[in-house]
Amino acid sequence: MFPLNAWYVAAMPDEVAQAPLGRRICDLPIAFWRDAQGQVQAVEDFCPHRGAPLSLGFVRDGQLVCGYHGLAMGGDGKTVSMPGQRTRGFPCARAYPVAERYGFIWVWPGEAAKADVNAIPVPLWHAQEGWAYGGGLYHMPCDYRLLVDNLMDLTHETYVHASSIGQKEIDEAPVATQLLPSGQVITERRMGGIHAPPFWQAAMTANGLDPQAKVDRWQVCRFVPPSNVLIDVGVALEGQGGFDAPEHAKVASVVVDYITPESATSCWYFWGMARHFKPEDTALTDAIREGQGKIFAEDMEILRRQQENLLRWPDRALLKLNIDAGGVQARKIIDQMLAAEAPQG
Amino acid sequence: MFPLNAWYVAAMPDEVAQAPLGRRICDLPIAFWRDAQGQVQAVEDFCPHRGAPLSLGFVRDGQLVCGYHGLAMGGDGKTVSMPGQRTRGFPCARAYPVAERYGFIWVWPGEAAKADVNAIPVPLWHAQEGWAYGGGLYHMPCDYRLLVDNLMDLTHETYVHASSIGQKEIDEAPVATQLLPSGQVITERRMGGIHAPPFWQAAMTANGLDPQAKVDRWQVCRFVPPSNVLIDVGVALEGQGGFDAPEHAKVASVVVDYITPESATSCWYFWGMARHFKPEDTALTDAIREGQGKIFAEDMEILRRQQENLLRWPDRALLKLNIDAGGVQARKIIDQMLAAEAPQG
Amino acid sequence: MFPLNAWYVAAMPDEVAQAPLGRRICDLPIAFWRDAQGQVQAVEDFCPHRGAPLSLGFVRDGQLVCGYHGLAMGGDGKTVSMPGQRTRGFPCARAYPVAERYGFIWVWPGEAAKADVNAIPVPLWHAQEGWAYGGGLYHMPCDYRLLVDNLMDLTHETYVHASSIGQKEIDEAPVATQLLPSGQVITERRMGGIHAPPFWQAAMTANGLDPQAKVDRWQVCRFVPPSNVLIDVGVALEGQGGFDAPEHAKVASVVVDYITPESATSCWYFWGMARHFKPEDTALTDAIREGQGKIFAEDMEILRRQQENLLRWPDRALLKLNIDAGGVQARKIIDQMLAAEAPQG
């Protein structure tokens, strides 16, 4: 269902600012909080005393205190204290490797010994200067793999997002898909000499380009295991090199899709956009976030209803067309990860 | 559970005016839409590409276009086109026989080869001049057979509809039930020399009769397989012949109950009234629809709670009294239809 | 799950004033109403005719009349009459022993022959003069035993009710638990020379004591099988004898917790407070009810979430600390009652 030996985005930093956060990840209820040094900690969300969720409690001196009878827990899952009790023999709660990196809190729901915080990929917009990021969080009523499929086949933009980023030429442009040795999957499409759709016209205007000018548009979707998708998107004035055009002749962004399974039929969707123009313009960041939020909300209903239909017809084989190759390859990688975690023999 | 080789009312025509309609019938999700000629088409509500419900899409050139990636389907369940794809080898969606007749859209959820559109019964109010019809649609939280029972035993009017059409004399009048060779079941009751209840007093006033006059009242319930009930109801001035009284001395209607299973515990209830007086008076049609809608909504809570109770006590045998004979006979017909559809041997 | 051969509080008297009341108790849907003498009657909430809940009907001449087709039932579960029917052969509904005692309606969901109304315990505040009572009813989303646990370990007050009755000294005071031969369990705690928390300061003021004075506080929790908890609580001026202090030097109450299982994961919580000061002051009764209602509502969310967690981890053993001894002993009594009711051999 979900690979466990992997880093998943668990939360945005401000979700674990003061109060603890309870969130189910890969069907594991986990309590997150910040210790006295401000480091995020994560343990299973079950008090060893009477089973109440620890995340309903509060933080005191960097420990997570159960809101029912006051058991205090450390980030290692050991009970530190409880009023009137000797706690040395208390059973431990499971602690999860957790890290705050690149604007997100990440958790490793699998074997702790295998967790290497350096394996969290450094995003381009953190590695380079000149980028700005804005985004949000949606709870999606579907298997996380349906959302990966969605993002690895952008022909849906023409239909689901017709009024913003969709346009007929997406359907008409051929798509090329490749599997990289790293397990990443890239599926890309280029459209030359077209008019930009409304979302990109607004971005051109914001960046000082004539929104009516003909452009070359690109979409390069990159699946990053276990379940994230980063998409290079943008438009450049026609004939300037597209993705490789000089800065002044293009508008380029990365659509960020960090997808974290919650259960077999739901997932957390940390979406956002990192842009390489006007990074200091926070009003523009807000405007893009609002626009992107509306666009991505359009996917929610169709994914919910697709999920319901697939549950109703579990044995029905779906088509795997050329446009689906990105999702198909991504699922193969996920299946390999699952097989590697399965008990032997 | 439900006979499939039968015509069921699927929708009212204006429900499939512009946009497609998705509706579950006999546990089968079905998408309805109008083709270029305005003919209603019906296919299973599952896109062969990725399983999204086709009914979330739109109609273009008479074809149903999936709202996710643009697959276009014809009324025969064959994919007509999809951007950038050769669709000849695509698997077919199941197409359902469908017809628009007598003010409703009908669907045949069973074997298409057995569907004969001429088997849809012609209602009296379409066969004759001088009738008007008004009605509505309710989603009922019960097995469709509980609603058939409800309508084949009108003694419930005294209790559930006490303020409108109920009256003590219903309970007191004997009921006679007969099974016709056609599989129809008739259960009828006549009450002589009584005062009309409020609903019928209003109808008498609307028709120029003294609402305080003594009347003869009739209720002739007709079960029409697989699951519909048509009820001749009315009052005539006392001693004028009741149902057979001359037009000027009576107020007569047909209560129309087209009942279509949705699932094992829910159904669609197309209710209405066809009346044989003042057919041109559309304000009267609206007033009757509103009054009938309120009355029929009174059944909803008791049927929901009856359904819950029966699910809790599935093995409890219910009584089958004389007043229940109509429902009991109707269920026998339904059971015969089910047996005829069951696999042999 | 629940002992059946026991008296449970089913309702407050005014819940069965005019209309019938339907309530599920120990997973048994039961209809309650008052007969012509005002005596409460209780039968299973299932009409023998067609299975509708009898509690949806009405009372006529002291009989419960089904709101669907008018079957009238007596308190013995026998059908008394039905319009147009001979009812002698109708199957009986199950009748439950029921009694109105000490301000509540009690029901015995088990074997009627074993029900002895004199076994209903007489509460202190009915046996003596000078008491006043006020309370309410909550529907709790948890196994009734989790609520018993909650009330037999008041260290949770420090955390769940920090702003009203909680205080640090509860955690610090040792607790003593004993099992009485009657099957009652007592767990008690005494705190000497402390400052009263806000709720008790208000009670001291209402009773003419200085709210800032140092006090001795007591909590004596008494589990009364099958599932009720009565708690002697109060504060006395320091050194005056605590619970045994003279009336003028203390404020004493009994917290009343009548707990009745609804299902495996829900229960009815009849909570209240009987106080032994200013019994004639109805405004004070209302004020205490409002304050107590707010305090007890604070338990609801944590119990709901604890229940969810325990369902998710059904095999996880919980800790049984000294503070949990009251609940642990209470569950042993419940288990003995269940074993006594289990089929032999």
Automatic annotation (TrEMBL), chains A, B, C:
Keywords (A to Z) from UniProt: 2Fe-2S, Dioxygenase, Iron, Iron-sulfur, Metal-binding, Oxidoreductase
Keyword Oxidoreductase belongs to the record: yes
Highest taxon in the source lineage: Bacteria
Enzyme Commission numbers on file: 1.14.13.-
GO molecular function: dioxygenase activity
UniProt key word Iron-sulfur: yes
Chain segments annotated as transmembrane: none
Xref: Gene3D superfamilies: Naphthalene 1,2-dioxygenase Alpha Subunit, Chain A, domain 1, Rieske [2Fe-2S] iron-sulphur domain
Stretches assigned to the Rieske domain: 7-107
Protein name in the entry: Aromatic ring-hydroxylating dioxygenase subunit alpha
Lineage, highest ranks first: Bacteria, Pseudomonadati, Pseudomonadota, Betaproteobacteria, Burkholderiales
